[in-house]
Amino acid sequence: MYDFETSYRAMESRDQRFDGRFVVAVTSTGVYCRPSCPSRTPRRQNVRFFRLPAAAEAGGFRACRRCRPDVAPSSPEWNVRGDLAARAVRLIEGGAVDRDGVAGLARRLAVSERHLHRQLVAEVGVGPQLLAISRRAQVARMLVETSGLALADVAFAAGYASVRQFNDGMRAAFGCPPGELRRAGSAEGPLELRLRYRPPLPVAPLLSWLAARALPGVETVEDRRYRRTMRLPYGTGHVAVEFAPVRAGDRWGAATVRLSLADLRDVSAAVQRCREIFDLDTDPELITDALSCDPVLGTLVQAEPGLRVPGCADGFELAVRAVLGQQVSLAAARTFGERLVRRFGEPFSTGDARLTHLFPTPEALAEAELETIGLTGRRAVTLRALARAVQADGLVLDRGADREQCVAALLALPGIGPWTAGYIAMHALGDPDVFLPDDLGLRSAARGLGIAADPAGLTARAQRWRPWRSYAAMRLGTTHEKGRQCGNTSAS
């Protein structure tokens, strides 16, 4: 957290760069705002600063109706860090407390409830339960304003136990009943939401990366729209994400997400996975400033700022696809992936002939005869070992995982080496500082830019790119010849 003077000066100058990094609570009005709120600057003695909206709400403040601090993208700090508090915040944002309670969250993080509470209070000012309550209110507001769901359905979709709890929670967070929020917004149409992000975001290279790897039957990419099927905590569904051009001067960009869910309680999880697929919580200005120190890479970053590191909808799926892509072309990897889905996946009806299956579960692959789809015996052994590690040994491949422990567990599996483990850490665990100096695509790009291309030289050069080496790798990958991105032909 910034000191009081830095925070106050950011608020006084209405600096938009600090939006999402902290909120400003005003004791004389009882509201909390973004640092860039256009309202009159409050007196110093009337100001308190909080790292998260949940902490301000716990202090008795409600969200400002003018600047809407509750809808700003979250601080990128929680995605960069890999410590206990950051992992807990990411899991709570994905609805972990609503599904499993604080006790379940603590078990997932392998700590006691007391220790978890103590760490979160020290870091963000509130414990896990209040963070979950704030998340519920934010999800509910999004659904009230942008969907046509009945308010009772909104209550349960957002995670409330009852309509009464929903009404009380909305009044506490926003100072008005949910019906008043709906009158101010749009309540017509299907379940269609808008996910905000910090521009710039070059959509073309992001969708191009996803399109090159799109798995037939599971996902499609066309006309600035990404669609895919998903397994979710309570059921299944499919999503469509579309990007509209950002106009000059816009404070935020927004992706339109259309959801079709078997269980409305999966709204939070589906939204969070969409944010992760497109890396929507990143602060591109922070990364651009950090990478611009390199005379070669900095030129590329300045020419096209905001490049994202794509995530995934499911960590196990991403890991399986990484193994399928070892030492083969993208086209071959997609062929193996399609065979895997058709043979071991679950048929799924979406109304679209191109989206026909859900990706196979770990249970389906743990003892599967994978050689029947053309895999070598060694590759089949690796995939079965990976599936059993997830199914029986508790290996978790998501952004709430301990990155170091997860990578170590992956490296202990037969057939998984540093490249595959690093690729999974980058795209499934969300580690922003992965660098794979043996990657043939990166070395080729570096050679073309006049950068030392041997692993030792490339590793030394990459030290100046920390802690954003994953983003540097993506930037180098886009300079490689068309159709090839980082890691396509690397050995594991």
Walkthrough of the structure:
The protein has 492 residues and is of the alpha+beta class. The chain folds into four domains: 4-57, DNA Methylphosphotriester Repair Domain (3-Layer(aba) Sandwich), CATH 3.40.10; 77-184, Homeodomain-like (Arc Repressor Mutant, subunit A, Orthogonal Bundle), CATH 1.10.10.60; 192-274, DNA-3-methyladenine glycosylase AlkA, N-terminal domain (TATA-Binding Protein), CATH 3.30.310; 315-479, Hypothetical protein, domain 2 (Endonuclease III, domain 1, Orthogonal Bundle). 47% of the residues lie in helices and 10% in strands. The chain has 23 helices and eleven strands. The chain has helices spanning 4-12, 53-58, 77-80, 84-93, 96-109, 113-124, 128-146, 151-158, 163-174, 178-184, 203-213, 267-277, 284-291, 297-303, 315-324, 330-344, 362-365, 377-391, 403-411, 418-427, 440-448, 455-462, 469-479; strands at residues 23-26, 31-33, 47-50, 62-63, 192-197, 219-222, 225-231, 236-243, 253-261, 346-347, 357-358. A five-stranded antiparallel sheet has the order 5-9-8-7-6. Strand 6 (219-222) and strand 7 (225-231) form a beta hairpin. The longest helix is centred in the N-terminal third of the chain and has 19 residues, at 128-146. It is globular and about 70 Å long.
